[in-house]
Amino acid sequence: MTLFLAPFATDFMLRALGGGVLVAAICAIVGTWVVIRGMAFLGEAMAHGMLPGVAAASLLGLPAIAGAAVSAVVMTFGVSAINRRGRLSSDTGIGLLFVGMLSLGVIIVSHSRSFAVDLTAILFGDILAIRSADIALLAVALVITAVVAVVFHRPFVALAFDARVAHTLRLRPRLAGAVLVGLVTLAVVASYGAVGSLLVVGLLLGPAVAAGHWAKRIPTTMLLAAVFGSVAVVTGLLVSWHAETAAGASIAAVSIALAGLSTLVRQLTKVSIATT
Length: 276
Hints:
This protein is an all-alpha fold. The chain has 12 helices and no strands.
């Protein structure tokens, strides 16, 4: 066992572990609401929508996370405009927006001489290269996410069940919806450096789905999702080290596997209870 856990004796693996656990906690809070509200497609769109900003920042020699933030803000306003005007269905409008942003990002990246390397880093991230400054940024993002989730808990709950009820209770459902989109944006941007723009969706969805089978209350689901996410981080890093696979992809794959395993175990448990 000691030999198996030996990778965490290295500084870069410890930083990857710390950053990954923080990402798991952020995604657990936001991912729980994403699953409850059926916003998985929005999370995917946000992940794709960061590409133009990250690509432009890379070509200009600016911090990638700054470009990701700019693109995410553009996506957030775009999604809000689509939801407010309502001329297209939400899914259709968001789909058009993220495909357009993704295409623009690929066009920008194609101007770089190191096209393949840049695109791989953008899409899949590099959690093993995470720095102490990145961990501090993730810690700040986690605090902001937790505070917003606590402050807007009642509006989020009301919005999840019926926007009209939320409006009747004067919980400002439109504001709550915009804040929730902002939380998804924050989670995607903050997690980008660790697992990349595509694989962050796995951490948003996998642990939350896994936890949802075993918890009834929303705070409990978030806590359990954070545990599942942390297990995915630890296991993914160990798989990456011993099997020489991509760390971000390994973490995302484990998180999805945990969701599938949790679903299977829950179904078997129900069958066992029903037959006894």
